[in-house]
Amino acid sequence: xxxxxxxxxxxxxxxxxxxxxxxxxxxxxxxxxxxxxxxxxxxxxxxxxxxxxxxxxxxxxxxxxxxxxxxxxxxxxxxxxxxxxxxxxxxxxxxxxxxxxxxxxxxxxxxxxxxxxxxxxxxxxxxxxxxxxxxxxxxxxxxxxxxxxxxxxxxxxxxxxxxxxxxxxxxxxxxxxxxxxxxxxxxxxxxxxxxxxxxxxxxxxxxxxxxxxxxxxxxxxxxxxxxxxxxxxxxxxxxxxxxxxxxxxxxx
Amino acid sequence: xxxxxxxxxxxxxxxxxxxxxxxxxxxxxxxxxxxxxxxxxxxxxxxxxxxxxxxxxxxxxxxxxxxxxxxxxxxxxxxxxxxxxxxxxxxxxxxxxxxxxxxxxxxxxxxxxxxxxxxxxxxxxxxxxxxxxxxxxxxxxxxxxxxxxxxxxxxxxxxxxxxxxxxxxxxxxxxxxxxxxxxxxxxxxxxxxxxxxxxxxxxxxxxxxxxxxxxxxxxxxxxxxxxxxxxxxxxxxxxxxxxxxxxxx
Lengths: 252, 249
Hints:
A: alpha/beta; 12 strands; globular; B: Rossmann fold; about 40% helix
């Protein structure tokens, strides 16, 4: 069978906004497997930033199983590559927690996306996903977040929050929350919004002496901050934020 | 210090300022009063350089410089402070970070050394104390969750920290209770009463002018100054109203 037949298409919801033509030659079965044992904590970060090692297509697929009472935290900044995608499939055990903080930034014709599928497979699991997207030029930022709560996963508490900030006309963001809930005693919150920089705030900042570049940087930093607020390592949080902000500063 | 000559300005094609002329020398506190819709806030925004407010004729000179030629942040660095009638909330940006960036941006533009974190903190705490604002509030996001009165006090703390040469204060007294009005008024006196500084104080009420005693009072109506007098003019307006005073003018 030719390889192209194996490739996803835009008809599949999870790939609808992706640059699927960029997947030609990529190994779609290349999943990173992460098992977080019961009671353990796991944290990892992914930064796709400008550098020699960054490829035009950056496809990262993580499959995570979080054991009973365990905790998994993933923080990501996608600020480089023509097409960058982080896909996380998480299956949560009883009382397990999944935390995701994601940032996509980009201009030109780039596509940067975060796709999650969170399966609350046992009762009392919790998940919290916060994604912020800042785009300009003809850049696109996507967040596709699927949450499945199986029938007996009572007392599940899941939250998903996406906000997009468009710095120029022509940029776009897509937010697709998908919740499939089969249990009846659960909390599942999701929110999505898209906006532009608050010009009133920018004038206020200018009236105090901040240049347009500096006021934009502060407002973008404030906007992105939510995504990294639960990352407890201050140095790491700062470094990830700088990657994102520098990208915006360099481009605009 | 500030010389406004024949200023015309419009918003969305509608003329709001219609030949306004006003000169405020250093050392003067000049109050502007006027009925709703006279153009008081427009004057403040035009001086601050707010986008959307188009100057169609006239000039504004600030310390010999063409103010209208400067970007809003350059006006601030040149020493102009605009006190907002409705201070803006900026979620995610702390007061301390905002003001330190603002002060150091202004200092840099003037070729001065940036303040260190410690120096800045001391200054911020001093000014918060002057305005009786809990210094803990400076750690909070800019104006977020502040009451109307707290916003106005915070605005004056900002003015104290930035230490401008000239302040345009747009209804700084609105939303203040009697005690807060006194604190804010005394704050304005402490920060701005100086032979080298000037204030354009826009207000509706005589009460603030009992604390911040103006050297001159002007009435703004239909986009121009129609009458200027001493501090007694404010009292007369309070007693008789705009129509009666303007009919005599």
